[in-house]
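quick one, 295 residues, struct below
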Amino acid sequence: MSVIDSPQIIAREVETPPGLFRRLIRQRQAKVGIGLAAAVVLLALLGPLLLPWATGYTSTEFAGRPFQPDGMLGTDNLGRDVLSRFLGGGLRLLMYAALATLLGMALGVLVGMTAAYRGGRVDGIIMRSNDVLLALPQLVFALLAITVLGPQGWVLVTVIGITHAPRIARVTRSATVNVITEDFIRAAEMYAVPKWKILVQDVLPNITGPLMVELGLRMTYSIGAVASLSFLGLGMQPPTADWGLMINENRIALVVQPWGVLLPVLAIAVLTVGTNLITDSLARAAANSNTGASK
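---
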């Protein structure tokens, strides 16, 4: 019998647990979540490309009298085509939410891993400072910062990302503490491997499960935060097409012309539900991975 066909190797291949992504895809809930989120993301990405030939109007062009059933879905508060505004209003929301989430993840992972690996006084100082930031309400901090610096895109991304970082740091620290006591970390330290290499090459790949779950949660919160700030007039500014801004502009005529409010609300709701389903499935897949590893 050849080495390739040996039963030991075959048994080892059979016993190898599937990766996180495979366990995620096997869940029906994850498939539904991916489908819902992908539909909204594609709509947001392709929507601006469909204007104006799909509706006959750009997102800022006058189409008729305000709050009238002209066109496919009527007009908004300034007489612009509702469908055109909707198709052109999702890209910035998703882009800002994604950038804010990535910024928060980068800061939180860096702080959490550093605190857990250094330990001692450094850990205490970092985490107590982290607790101070956690005590500040996210929305209040965002309102104050945007009021001072102005409602600009980079301010929106930075503020939301910073408010995410302390929560991500706590999760990262907890996951890192469970990894740094493993033998392969001690072996790397014995061979004088640089600390940053240990964190990047050995620790980070072993805390991917909790971080992916946190990524999904923070993306959900970022979408809600960007939309909420736009609704309050502190996010995207007129005449920019934006889903949160559409809700604020057209809520006064919800009974007369509901589409200007219902379309963005439904899109944000579907995206949020899809992201939550993916996050729950990721948490379940990560838990199964830990159970399999413990066995």
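The radius of gyration is 24 Å.
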